[in-house]
Specification:
heterodimer; A: mainly beta; seven-stranded mixed sheet; four-stranded antiparallel sheet; 11 strands; B: about 110 residues; mainly beta
Amino acid sequence: EVQLVESGGGLVQPGRSLRLSCTSSGFTFGDYAMSWVRQAPGKGLEWLGSIRTQTYRETTEYAASVKDRFIISRDDSKNIAYLQIHSLKTEDTAVYYCARRGSFWFFDYWGRGTLVTVSS
Amino acid sequence: DIVMTQSPDSLAVSLGERATITCKSSQSVLHSSNNRNYLAWYQKRPGQPPKLLIYWASTRESGVPDRFSGSGSGTEFTLTISSLQAEDVAVYYCQQYYIVPPVTFGQGTKLEIK
């Protein structure tokens, strides 16, 4: 059974950094690109970025709105994808989801999400 | 970027009745080389992660009930629930994956029971 479990969320002060993890199981992690998507309170889904597989040099792409502050990485030996967020802003308050992406850019499995609250 | 616009923003339908949600893209998501529409639909229930319902505009994901169907081509698409069940109460999102990045989602349509 495919499972994605996000962790690392919580209450963080503005300006701080945070690293979220997405621990995967039930599939060959190294064969799939991974993405991060967030949903702010009362808002819709916002794609943040993706990381390709080692075959594609683990290249990353980001949404324009976050590309200067967000970094996605992966550790295939641990089956984990990461989202590093720098210079957190109150508007980064959201539930952050990781999602599995296949050859095409839709997402067939999602984690349950981790809540990040940015507040002083 | 391709802009995805859904209508309506919210919808109330009686149990057992048909629900129809529309999604329009700012440019075509039909790939001429393979005649596929790069359009997916997701269901987002409160407190749960999004769930993939439909991809290639009309292909149901494994395990999705057949009361869910997708149709359309080019720039206009429809998600239809043929007979609304209580568990279908959710927000539904369309997403294009034709020109990426970025992936873009519609703003969502909230479906409730009348």
